[in-house]
Description:
Two copies of one chain form a homodimer.
Chain A: E1 3-5, E2 14-19, E3 31-46, H1 54-64, E4 67-77, H2 83-101, E5 108-115, H3 122-134, H4 141-147, E6 156-164, E7 167-176, E8 189-194, H5 200-212, E9 218-219, E10 229-234, H6 248-270, E11 278-286, H7 289-301, H8 303-310, H9 316-324, E12 336-339, E13 342-346, E14 349-350, H10 353-363, E15 367-373, E16 379-386, H11 390-398
Parallel strand pairs in A: 4-5, 8-10, 9-16, 11-15
Antiparallel strand pairs in A: 1-6, 2-3, 3-4, 3-10, 6-7, 7-8, 11-16, 12-13, 12-15, 13-14
Amino acid sequence: MKITTNQAEKIAGFKFAAGASGIRKSGRLDLALIYSEVPARCAGVFTTNKIKAAPLQLTEPRVAEGLCQAVLVNSGNANACTGAPGLRDAKRCSELAAAALQIPENYLAVSSTGVIGAPLPMDSFEKHIPLLAQNLTSDAADAVSQAIMTTDSFAKLASCRGEVAKAPYRLLGVAKGAGMIHPNMATMLGFVLTDAQVEPALLQEALRRAVDNSFNIITVDGDTSTNDMVLLLANGAAGNREICSGTAEGERFVEELTGVLLELAKMIVRDGEGATKLARIRILGAASDEDAKKAAVSVATSSLVKTAFFGEDANWGRIIAAVGYSGAEVDSEKVEIRFDDVPVVCQGISTGQELEEKATEVLKQAEFTVTVDLALGDASADYYTSDLTYEYVKINADYRT
Amino acid sequence: MKITTNQAEKIAGFKFAAGASGIRKSGRLDLALIYSEVPARCAGVFTTNKIKAAPLQLTEPRVAEGLCQAVLVNSGNANACTGAPGLRDAKRCSELAAAALQIPENYLAVSSTGVIGAPLPMDSFEKHIPLLAQNLTSDAADAVSQAIMTTDSFAKLASCRGEVAKAPYRLLGVAKGAGMIHPNMATMLGFVLTDAQVEPALLQEALRRAVDNSFNIITVDGDTSTNDMVLLLANGAAGNREICSGTAEGERFVEELTGVLLELAKMIVRDGEGATKLARIRILGAASDEDAKKAAVSVATSSLVKTAFFGEDANWGRIIAAVGYSGAEVDSEKVEIRFDDVPVVCQGISTGQELEEKATEVLKQAEFTVTVDLALGDASADYYTSDLTYEYVKINADYRT
Lengths: 401, 401
């Protein structure tokens, strides 16, 4: 399985358009449309935040019906905490797009990301949404990936090819997110398209499993948002034999999907607001899966650990402290910690100055792995995190000004 | 009840000494001794971190016995994750102090704070601990408050007077902590002394209740440490009638103790690493006490909320999002949010630009209250937090260098 990044390939039966509606300053792309020539089977995963933005209130039940033909997304405005008028606006967006595309309105998914609490610029949208429908082309996936950016510093696109009984198919995903990133679908949007023919039951299962092993194991700042969604659309244009759950082909499809989403997820962490490092936190030897996860999350979200990464300081004391307060079972005399392959803690105590200096060299890299072996059992977990920098504070103190 | 801060009053039957052992650079005070002329009844609260530093392993069981006559504290070195040698060092510190003071060793509490994983400088301690015992005086509580500082920018001392049947008594507390501050006793030390005669059962109950409403409702960065402890010593030198649990006097004692600890706790948040703001997060109208607490913690620990405070941005969207992912029951159409007395959200939506500008003025103050009324029930909770600043990142990226 080979994942290609930031290369906008065509994908059979899908078209794209993006435009600048004026929400974002200086004519940036801020409105995008993804369209499938035929109604696609779809699956979705949505924020766990109890405050759900208007577009999610509208889209979630539609996606649950299983068919989707177009996705309308805007950046710059989340249409969240906007009450009944916000829901009317989301509905109007979907009406405008459905009318322009001449498709049933309930085949339309809408999605928004940006500032909370402000009304959508409907006057502008009345004009710009129909324009998108006129400008659909098969080679504009990259424009969509740009239009959904908010504080992202680069667009995020990943793809992969698969095959069923010699019939080739493709997977293409775009995502956005750079802050408010945390498991359970923190402010991030992801749209994944495939021209494969996929059994509806597998589609939802595949998306859930892939998200759990990609977007749900990354953190930038621990905040989850009101607007997150990941949609998977499968339009069958590749003409392959249907891929079904419980088969080798089905498992391969899940792996490919996970591969695409994990690549997008890692791009999100690399682009974490102000981030200069991508660290994989790997817990080994935990007493249970739950413990492994708890310990990984605790280390990955510790502000002290994240600032130490920024300072390129192999401060394992903060890591062991974060494991200690995670709630996971720990025996302080068994813990081992490595930075890449350099051991800094063995049986709970320091391996000495020389190895710590070597570990500091590891931290000078842009990407590295911190392994904590609890030596209590067989469970393990991975988690990806960024460092916490001056720039993070600057971006988030200034965001609306 | 009047709480006095940063004024080192004498307290009957207690003596203090502080010295510079050389752990900290430039001759800063880093070693301190608190001594009671008679064995004092004592109570303690210790870190919930599963990785417990050596001094805690030694002190916790001793405090559980109920009597304590002296506390030896050092800053600059936590003696944590130091294995069997670390425990031997902690034991040796206690032997040295007990011998110098000529008291039973099990009446000695030891406490350390600072860098994790390095051995204590025992050569220096062999010389300096006996010196402390020679220099005890009744008016050096402020020197103790200075000697326990690590990244603290100011010393923290608070006191209060009480009375039982016309017999006056005093409460005097010192604390340290500026980072790794979070509920459940994050890297902070607190030592509270009273000359009152207090029933042993009340002593532990009072400390638990007071800590729950002071040190356990503050957060700076969400990290809890391996070394936290709060000790309460009551030596009875005031000669009052014993204060007992379940009496009006007992309740008053708990209130006074809570007042002293809350004042120390707020000083810790004000001194939060890099902090420029002290914000009280007040949740009202929650469906349950647990929900109120969850929502308060979630808002108080959100990096996005804390950076918005730093940016003096009345970004209520981040607050409502943090409530939404807290796990507390929320009805987005009922939520009200105020900055001091300025309403910015009513029934889940913005109250408009003008009030938001007024709220921005509130955020320009050094201290303010953010109230979130969930309008679902009667439960409430308070939480104190700081802003997240460039300086926080700087301090923690550079701490060991």
